[in-house]
């Protein structure tokens, strides 16, 4: 029997990126907020200090910062006629656990989406026609977001300044800027900090790409290029290219994370209470099923509590957001046989992978000396920046391409050319020959939603509290494979132009496997939109069916963009919170009429 606690104004389920943003904005508005985090409390000092934080076995291989999948896993299958099995080792994606969430061990690649991304369906039909879209795959369920880039621009700006993103603007108010990305959507002003220093691998990539007529630019990064004080008065330091960034926390206060950009201020606010090691089991509804009354959670000692609240923010990472909605009976679950229902619909992923370029021994890369988001990119093949009209076979979408090596760590990085034995003396010789003379190129791109890919509750497997696991049914749509393979050919040409002696082609293939890291940009499943028949939340991330529940994060993306998505998540969260502060708190209820 759960113990009922004193009511509060709002709760966040999860205290990662979106949970911290939501709590901060709400306490600023005078609300009493409780943040529930299933993982432990942790701070830069003492928890993220070296040498312990540079333990590759603990963090990269054994995934110390990730969701405890002995307690709560995700089950997976490629198609709905297969039986899903729980993922017991995270590899393909790495959802985080602990104060700060995945935003502690992220890389810091800090891109905005493009104008067309937010109106993908109407843009595609307008530029190429419905027949073309149908030819890309009748199973595709792409749709517009219900919000436009122009509406989000001020919120992108605000979020980038909170983080202190280091980059070079390519387009300020429509004026193309030398040195930046000419394909960038217009921004109001420069980045808060100049770009990181260009590593040697980035310079080689940039030269090769330029020789083929492409447009290199420095990757926007939340590894800071210089000391910076953010608008909340928090001081960040300059990145030292330590080589232990993604999958690790930053010991130097140089990577934007909840611990460096917001939590120190939030935790001091008397209206805020953090409860770590507390797992929210479900959102409770009143007898009408149309109003949330709070949440039920279990604390670290296994005691069950009911926390009444007026507003519930689901801020638990996209996969957990969708599971929370399903476990709580909020919104109609998606049925792949009829195509009806919205919760679990349009789950999508990202297309990644790129060539490995083996260079001459005279080219010394020093891959160990790097950051989480350094390097040089091109956007010539991203989104709809190139004409798709004559693509045969047809496809939509695209990928950014760049060299962004993040640290040649000893266990994970030992590139060898094809034909090298996987162990023994010859393998060791090949590693010694190529370790310092190899450049990785990243292709990173869109993934379209499909009626065949979805999330639901597993009928067999349960978590430590006896609740069904989330079940993922996913394979890349044929459209995504065509797109990625087309770009793979172009990127091989870049690898050769860089002077590569051997260039090993990349590109996405089917079937999708969960055994190789690809991206932790899981998207969709509780998508935003204008129509409650095809979206779980409205344009302010408010649940259509239960208006005092807001589902924040990448679960709202109707299909996935080419870019690492957290900057867009931050902008969307600020956009929704602004509407809550200025309108919802004055008059609680639906912000949009269905
Ligand atoms: C290795 C890696 C590299 C990345 N690099 C980049 C990058 O370079 N650029 C980029 O844009 N993005 C990157 N990302 C993605 C980025 O980390 C996420 O987009 C971002 O953290 C999502 O924010 P969120 O609030 O949705 O989830 P999170 O920040 O993960 O926070 C969710 C929190 O909710 C908690 N939680 C979940 N369920 C419950 C529950 N039932 N009860 C209580 N608490 C719960 C979790 O423990 C977690 O702490 C990367 C991710 C990883 C893993
Ligand atoms: S690479 Fe830079 S930002 Fe990343 S952990 Fe090291 S010092 Fe921090």
Question: What is the strand and helix layout of this fold?
Answer:
Layout: E1 3-4, E2 8-13, H1 17-28, E3 33-37, H2 44-47, H3 56-61, E4 74-77, E5 85-86, H4 120-128, H5 130-136, H6 149-163, E6 171-172, E7 175-176, H7 200-211, E8 217-218, E9 228-229, E10 235-236, H8 258-261, H9 263-266, E11 272-276, E12 279-285, E13 292-298, E14 304-314, H10 318-328, E15 351-352, E16 356-358, E17 376-378, E18 399-403, H11 425-434, E19 438-440, E20 442-445, E21 454-462, E22 468-473, H12 478-497, E23 502-504, E24 549-551, H13 566-584
Parallel strand pairs: 1-14, 2-3, 2-14, 3-11, 4-22, 14-24
Antiparallel strand pairs: 4-5, 6-7, 8-17, 9-10, 12-13, 13-14, 15-20, 16-19, 16-23, 17-18, 18-20, 21-22
Helix pairs in contact: 1-13, 4-5, 6-13, 7-12
The structure holds flavin-adenine dinucleotide (FAD) and iron/sulfur cluster (SF4).
Iron/sulfur cluster (SF4) is lined by residues 223, 239-242, 244-245, 248, 250, 252, 254-255, 371-372.
The SS-based structural class is alpha/beta
Could you say which overall geometry the principal axes of the C-alpha atoms support? Answer: globular
CA-CA gap between termini = 37 Å
Bound molecules: flavin-adenine dinucleotide, iron/sulfur cluster
What radius of gyration results from the CA coordinates?
23 Å
Q: Which percent bin holds the helix content?
A: 10-25%
Reported for the largest beta sheet, the result is: 8 strands, mixed
Count of beta strands: 24
Percent of sequence in beta strands = 15-25%
Contiguous low-pLDDT stretches (5 residues minimum) are none
The tally of helices reads 13
Residue-averaged pLDDT, rounded? 97
